[in-house]
Specification:
Shape: globular
Number of strands: 13
Radius of gyration: 20 Å
Number of domains: 3
Distance between the termini: 22 Å
Order of helices and strands: EHEHEHEHHHEEEHEEEEHEEHH
Strand order of the largest sheet: 11-10-9-12-13
Low-confidence stretches: 282-293
CATH architecture of the largest domain: 2-Layer Sandwich
Mean pLDDT: 90
CATH topology of the largest domain: D-amino Acid Aminotransferase, Chain A, domain 1
Largest sheet: 5 strands, antiparallel
Helix content: 25-40%
Length: about 300
Amino acid sequence: METLKRLILLGASEEGISAAHACGYHVIVIERPKKSISEKVTALAEAIYFADIWDTDAAHKVVEKIFSQYEDIKLILSFTELGLETAAYLSERYNLKTNPFETVRRTRNKNLMRNAFASHDDLKLQTFCGKADRLPEKISGLLPMIIKPNDGFGSQNVAYIKNQSDWEKWLRTHAQSKLEWILEPFIEGPEFSVETVSSEGTHTVLGITEKETSGMPNFIETGHIVPALLETEQKQQIEKIVKKALTVLGVQYGPGHVEVKWDVVNKRPVVIEAHTRPGRGLYSVSALSVQRSQPIRTWHIKL
């Protein structure tokens, strides 16, 4: 007789709950209050609870209740940005398989990621981080640059700074902003998204997608080329630097979504961001449809 096993899923992801069922799990969902939940998730979930999944204390109270009512809970997962840190924190509290909380935190906080990369010449970049009034007033010798929220995601509030005049205008516009920002070099060249899966610290590249964007100044994604049209040496270099970045960050398990630019000036790949989740929308589907037969979320749960 097959042993019953359950997992807690932070965020009512249709893909996540479908993958969990494919792996033989009963799924208990925790979702944000007032967040709509699809009919599919409602039908597949064993139970649904509500809490702010980015609030570790609020989510912990609900998880305590779940553990008191259900047995054989093997995993606490999230495939959504807002639930990643909470899932890692709670997994550590209950001694479940997970990436370390500090690893997930480094992928959510761009400055912490850059600090982790600082001792590696092939990963480090010169960056500045802080609220607008703490950033340098003069950056003429470093231009062009990119400015974006330190803990942002989805290309939100990204701006291209071409010259000192642009920078002074940006500083005036954001003088009252309460956000923390990171200022980093603009890398000239095409951008790629690399989908990975990790198990016990060993990383496998599942696919590479070339991103098409609206370009300057906000770089909104407009399309994708799958698979990316890369020369063999370029592909090998990208895969090598992505695996190194994941190792340096301390990633042990699950999906990874790493954004890389090919520096056409220095002829090398540059890691821009790294995440312990699948790529949104097309990324995870396209990468796997080209190179694998199982969704990334299924790989994550099986690991």
